[in-house]
Amino acid sequence: MNHLFRLLLKNYNSYGLYAAGCMLGLCMLWIAPSNVSAQDEDAQAAAPADEYPTKVVIFPFRQAVISAEVDTAVKEYKFKEGECFKEGDVIALLDDRVYQQKYEKAKSAQLEAEASMQFALKNFKRNEEMYQKGIQGMQDLEKSELERDIAASKLHFSVANMKMADLDLRACRLVAPFPGRLIKKLVQEDEFVRASQQVINIIDDYQLLAVMHLPSSEINKVEIGKNMRIWIDETRTEHEGTIYVISGEIDPGSRTFEIKVLLDNRDRKLAAGMSGKLMKRYDKNSEKK
User: What does the radius of gyration of the chain's CA atoms come to, in whole angstroms?
Assistant: First the structure.
């Protein structure tokens, strides 16, 4: 620093006030960064130890895209986008007229196969009794036995067709696999869909997952079931949850690991996509002690 001031006096004598002012400005620029860094370090040291400005993003507990299993048209939606449903509710109906007829056809074929099987069994039993009495020969007995086996095979075939027809008919009703909310209709009513084509997007938001990344130094301080408090920016409210998932690896680039905190959302005050931060981490059981 003394060297810089001596250089400043020398420039003043040689070039005048202008040169000296330029040198003074350079000195101030050199000194300023060190002061700013010191201020930042003091502010970080003054931050409360129980607050963690970790970014948190809210995700649904479960989500699914329901696809059509048969080729047909979308007949009717039972829920609007954004509406809630329960597990087992019918969300959408597909046109089932063709599959209803296929079901009736398979049912008739099964009834016919069952009747043929009953006749073949009675005929075989009758021929067996006559053979034992010596009234009928071995060839007639073997023929009736063959007819019995063919009838049994046709019955199994018809039963399989009946099950397939029943599955196709049931597939015309898109049923909710879990309670939740309809997010988006990917196909409009009266539009034709192919098997495996996506129809609706649903989520389970009765529970939510608050996803965040913590420094790797915290990995031995967290455990499944431990309580945490989350601040949500959109609602400006705090919510308590429990750690549900802890990632099994640390990201080498950011030196952080992911955790997911399970939040109860039965009152539907929160929504997937909201964000906030981790406010406080504590365990009620340890506090009671």
Answer: 38
